[in-house]
Design a protein that fits this description.
Pathway: Sulfur metabolism; glutathione biosynthesis; glutathione from L-cysteine and L-glutamate: step 1/2. By secondary structure, the protein is α+β, with helices and mostly antiparallel strands. The protein contains 19 helices and 14 strands. A hairpin with a 2-residue loop joins strand 9 and strand 10. Helix 14 packs antiparallel against helix 15. It is globular.
């Protein structure tokens, strides 16, 4: 254990400070495709009964019209957030009219690309901005790849927590924004540690070792055939997070620097403002219709695909990078978790408990700056794990030496143990974080206990990824339909749906100015300091 981690643990273990750990926030975003009874992509519009995908705070769409996204409110305990996620799922199932939610991260059977409908958000300028952005994603990455789904885990520690650390480490409050800057740079340091150790999450929670053969039709790959309609890699943990996923040549060289918030923001802004010749050849319009928001490497900063992001809640009319510049980092968003096909809502409480301990470890442990070569090593460790994580004898690179993944994983879990103990002592959870830690330790000792191994075993037994996905989708549909919400809870969701539709209508009525002018204004508001 490093000196810094020992010192910070002792500080938080003090009776006067331990309660700070109760004040952090957790939130979950779950993406899931709507499918028909045969496990094929739904061709229907986003159900109006669910409300407006533009303005609803908990139910929207991600890329495709059929790709739902459920968003929980931020809660102090992950158990409460999961209860919220469960309620959204149960409500959605009352409005799906025979459709189901796909149980996997990798897509179900998809129609030809020109038949996959991009998310529609109405005729307002902001709604059209969201739609055209997705047209640009289709142009740049293809529609099938945009139908991959995942779990996003939003995590924050309270400002009082960072203020306590700052005072204990001699950060002077006299300097303007000193505490804000300390908090931001602490989150950035946390992200660096996540880069070092996130391969562990892919080993423990990766659940996409197989996919439908049609998904890679026309693309070169090194996957093996499990059956006529199924491809896999025998030791893969998460093909979703491999080089088969979200990638293109324009982003290949984009590596935002996470050695400071300033360098991170600067590199993203460069990508948002730097033209990319192949996109320039296409232009922003074709036959008078918008096809992408810009011809730059990124249309907007959220196009940058990353396993983790620093975030700040944005204000009306504000861009994400402006929020970070003006007010600093507020929370982090973990984006590398696969959908757990064995869980009705796609993620388990046990996973959440371990994530809380893991992320607290990343926040408190020493986090040296990462040079370019070290960054390549971390990326290579991650890539090895997602494609070969369960391979016997697999090694990763640590301190210029090759070490067995299982040995390093076991060591990391022991380093995280004091954080799990601290969380259990404060939350009075009777050992739930330690129980989750033990469950992960068992996966390290026996790779067959990992979700990826369990998925592969079930797919082998059924002979098809599609049959396994449909089986799990039907199972979860029965579970969620079988225990409907209480009438008062359902009525609350109904009211949220009506209010979101009214809000969208009000936005459309109040719109002024052309869409061309709106995009121009949006694209020009990329410099920090603009409000």
């Amino acid at each position: 254990m490093s000196n810094q981690l020992t010192r910070r643990l002792a500080l938080l273990d003090d009776d006067a400070h331990r309660g700070l750990l109760l004040q952090g926030l957790r939130g979950i975003e779950r993406e899931t495709l709507r499918v028909d009874a045969h496990g094929h992509l739904a061709r229907t519009p986003h159900p109006a009964a669910l409300g407006s995908a533009l303005t609803h705070s908990q139910i929207t769409t991600d890329y495709a019209e059929a790709l739902l996204e459920f968003i929980t409110p931020a809660e102090h305990d992950i158990g409460l957030a999961l209860n919220r996620l469960d309620a959204v799922h149960r409500y959605a199932y009352t409005k799906l009219d025979g459709e189901m939610l796909w149980s996997q991260s990798m897509p179900c059977a998809l129609p030809p690309e020109d038949e996959i409908q991009i998310g529609w958000y109405g005729n307002s300028n902001i709604g059209m901005l969201k739609h055209v952005y997705r047209r640009g994603l289709a142009l740049r990455y293809g529609k099938a790849m945009q139908c991959i789904a995942g779990i996003h885990y939003n995590y924050s520690l309270p400002e009082a927590f960072w203020q306590l650390l700052a005072r204990s480490e001699g950060i002077a409050e006299e300097r303007r924004n000193a505490l804000r800057d300390f908090q931001s740079e602490s989150y950035i340091a946390m992200i660096r540690n996540f880069r070092r150790y996130s391969w562990l999450l892919m080993y423990l929670f990766g659940a996409s070792p197989v996919l439908a053969s049609a998904f890679l039709e026309g693309r070169e790959h090194n996957l093996e055939a499990l059956s006529d309609d199924t491809l896999y890699l025998p030791y893969a943990t998460s093909l979703r997070m491999s080089d088969l996923g979200y990638q293109n040549d324009a982003q290949a060289g984009l590596r935002p620097h996470e050695n400071s918030l300033e360098s991170y923001v600067t590199s993203l802004m460069d990508a948002v403002n730097r033209p990319y010749p192949p996109y320039e050849e296409v232009g922003t319009k074709k036959d008078g219709e918008w096809v992408q928001l810009s011809t730059n490497i990124l249309q907007i900063e959220n196009e940058y695909y990353s396993t983790i992001r620093p975030k700040r809640v944005i204000r009306t009319g504000e861009r994400p990078v402006q929020a970070l510049c003006n007010r600093g980092v507020q929370y982090i968003e973990v984006r590398c978790l696969d959908i757990d096909p064995f869980e009705p809502v796609g993620v388990s409480l046990e996973t959440g408990r371990f994530l809380d301990a893991f992320l607290l470890f990343c926040a408190l442990e020493e986090s040296p700056l990462i040079n370019a070569m070290e960054g390549q090593v971390h990326a290579r460790n991650f890539a090895r794990t997602v494609k070969e994580g369960r391979r016997p004898g697999l090694t990763l690179t640590r301190d210029d030496a090759e070490v067995p993944l299982t040995e390093w994983a076991a060591e990391l879990i022991e380093r995280i143990r004091p954080l799990a103990e601290l969380l259990d002592s404060e939350h009075n959870y009777k050992g739930v974080h330690l129980e989750s830690l033990e469950a992960q330790r068992a996966k390290v000792a026996d790779p067959d206990k990992t979700p990826s191994a369990r998925v592969l075993a079930d797919v082998r037994a059924l002979g098809s990824f599609a049959r396994f996905g449909l089986q799990q989708s039907e199972l979860h549909a029965r579970t969620l339909r079988g225990e409907p919400l209480m009438p008062a809870e359902a009525a609350l969701f109904d009211e949220m749906a009506r209010a979101s539709l009214d809000e969208q209508a009000a936005i459309e009525r109040s719109d002024s100015g052309s869409f061309d002018d709106f995009v121009a204004a949006y694209n020009s508001s990329t410099l920090c300091g603009n409000n």
